[in-house]
Specification:
Elements (H helix, E strand, L loop, with lengths): L16 E5 L17 H15 L3 E5 L14 H11 L4 E2 L6 H8 L6 E3 L15 H4 L3 H6 L5 E4 L10 H5 L6 E3 L1 H15 L5 E5 L4 H13 L5 E4 L1 H10 L6 H9 L3 H14 L3 E2 L3 E6 L2 E6 L8 E4 L1 H12 L3 E5 L12 H12 L3 E4 L3 H8 L8 E2 L3 H8 L5 H8 L5
Parallel strand pairs: 1-2, 1-5, 2-4, 3-4, 5-6, 7-8, 7-13, 8-9, 13-14, 14-15
Antiparallel strand pairs: 10-11, 10-12
Helix pairs in contact: 1-2, 8-11, 8-15, 9-11, 12-13
Length: about 400
């Protein structure tokens, strides 16, 4: 699939005021309020540095968490962290599109970098609207007249339709930053040239995402095997008639996922030979791991796939031509129940197949285990990559393509 949108290469940057939307949403210690990880800032540093090195006046838009969460805070710390990473000053202004922000932008010189305040402090940013309507918001209308070019590098948020993500493309010449460009080239390229057998490893607790992907890749014939882990596996076990224990059934119900058991039943009827469910699981008893057959699951929480299941899955992964994996196999933060996640990642790392790891917890586990160099691609955006694999058109990508001729 040809990528029909502009990139940084399509613009003359020297002396231009460039607004760049990044995703530097970072984990924050709830007690100290300090940023715990700067991975996303490191990712976006390539785009920001390139803009500044080419004489642009670089204005950064970003968010941190969302209203009501403990890590919903200002971007002042992010500016300091970015300054260290970029090895050049990053000015922070406690404003998004008001007088202070616009006045600071107007005084910028070539090579300057400015970080505006958390865009989610602004109420319209968190309202879902059609992309075209987002261009009519105050943020877009106030900033656009003093900006020359809009660069969207926030792949991790590309599945969202919000003013800072889609609105500016209707008002300004727009293109993709280096993170966005790389993610889309790799993901679309892998989808267009799937090497067989193609194995999807779907786990974690975001069942709606995984089942959405599963339905798409099974219906379009792109998946040869789906290996279920995590809460996804529990739902398929229940759909297959296994007695998974009342506590696990209640957990599915309390998460609001009961309807997915029926979806799983339907998928098993239609694609039984392609969907693998665990043959054993690990339950937690007195903080200890006990592996049991799926025929004998006690009323104890299931925290991982079992050893025999791990062996079976690892064998299929090592024989795969293409591997897409999203979501951990269990409660991997606890060493007793990290075996499934660790061994599956180890199998992916040692496979000769082309491997893509979705963002979020599985990506963090891969990095923690030192496997980032062994995977072909670790995505910066779990929600965006999973939506793309599910066949959805990402709002940000659609707008970038629709506006590609506007330079």
């Amino acid at each position: 699939m040809p990528l029909k949108f502009n990139t940084i290469d399509d613009f003359q940057l020297d002396g231009k005021t460039v607004l760049v939307r990044v995703d530097i949403n970072s984990p924050v210690d709830p007690n100290s309020g300090l940023i715990l990880d700067d991975t996303r800032m490191l990712l976006h540093s390539e785009t920001i540095s390139e803009l500044a090195d080419n004489g642009a006046k670089t204005v950064i838009l970003a968010h941190q968490s969302r209203p009501g969460k403990k890590d919903f805070t200002t971007l002042e710390q992010h500016a300091h962290a970015l300054s260290k990473i970029l090895k050049r000053p990053v000015t922070y202004v406690e404003d998004i599109f008001g007088y202070a922000a616009r006045e600071t932008i107007s005084k910028m010189k070539k090579g300057d970098i400015l970080l505006l305040e958390n865009v989610r402090f602004y109420s319209e940013e968190v309202l879902k609207k059609d992309a075209r309507l987002q261009a009519e918001t105050h943020m877009v209308q106030k900033l656009s007249p003093i900006i020359d070019i809009f660069i969207n590098d926030a792949f991790a948020a590309a599945h969202r339709s919000q003013p800072s993500l889609v609105g500016f493309a209707f008002e300004l010449p727009s293109g993709a930053g280096r993170v966005m460009e790389k993610e889309l080239k790799i993901l679309y390229g892998a989808l267009d040239d799937v090497k067989r057998p193609c194995v999807y490893v779907l786990g974690g607790v975001k069942v709606d995402d995984s089942i959405m992907v599963m339905e798409n890749v099974l219906e379009n014939g792109s998946a040869d095997y789906i290996l279920t882990t995590g809460l996804v596996a529990n739902i398929f076990l229940e759909a297959d008639g296994a007695k998974i224990g009342q506590c696990n059934s209640d957990f599915i119900k309390n998460k609001g996922y009961s309807d997915f058991v029926k979806t799983a039943e339907r998928l098993l009827v239609k694609f039984r030979e392609k969907i693998l469910i665990p043959i054993d699981v690990a339950v937690c008893k007195n903080e200890k791991r006990i592996d049991v057959s799926v025929k004998d699951i006690p009323n104890l929480p299931i925290y991982d796939v079992g050893i025999e299941t791990i062996k079976l899955y690892a064998q299929l992964i090592r024989q795969a031509g293409t591997i897409f994996a999203n979501g951990p196999a269990g409660v991997f933060e606890n060493p007793e129940f990290s075996i499934g996640t660790d061994d599956i990642l180890n199998a992916i790392a040692s496979s000769q197949g082309f491997s893509i790891i979705g963002g979020g917890h599985l990506a963090a586990a891969a990095v923690q285990m030192g496997f980032e160099g062994e995977m072909d691609h670790i995505s910066s955006g779990g929600g965006a990559s999973i939506s793309l694999l599910a066949g959805e058109e990402l709002p940000v990508v659609k707008v970038l393509k629709d506006m590609a001729g506007k330079k």
